[in-house]
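<context>
A single protein, sequence plus fold
<entry> Chain with its tokenised backbone below
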Amino acid sequence: MANIGSFLFSHPLDPALIISKQLTKSDLQGNVKLPKQQTESVLMRMGGVTAYELQNGKEVVVFDLVEGDEYTVTLRCLNNTAYYFGDGW
């Protein structure tokens, strides 16, 4: 697949697919906890991915709009309530 950044800049960006978060010190020391409402909005658009399925993790490509960097990370869910990026962050 082509660079996701190139794709994003040539197509309108759906705000429902954006997860925004200001990083904290704890994010930099471990897993990045994600805002629940924004994450669930993205999940609804990922073709039926459920919180239950994310307990084992799902590899996703993330594009950092601020830095212009692309990452492959594992999106996970804990107890169907807390979403976070695990491996790859």
Notes: Residues 31-89 form one domain. The helical segments are 4-10, 25-29, 36-44.
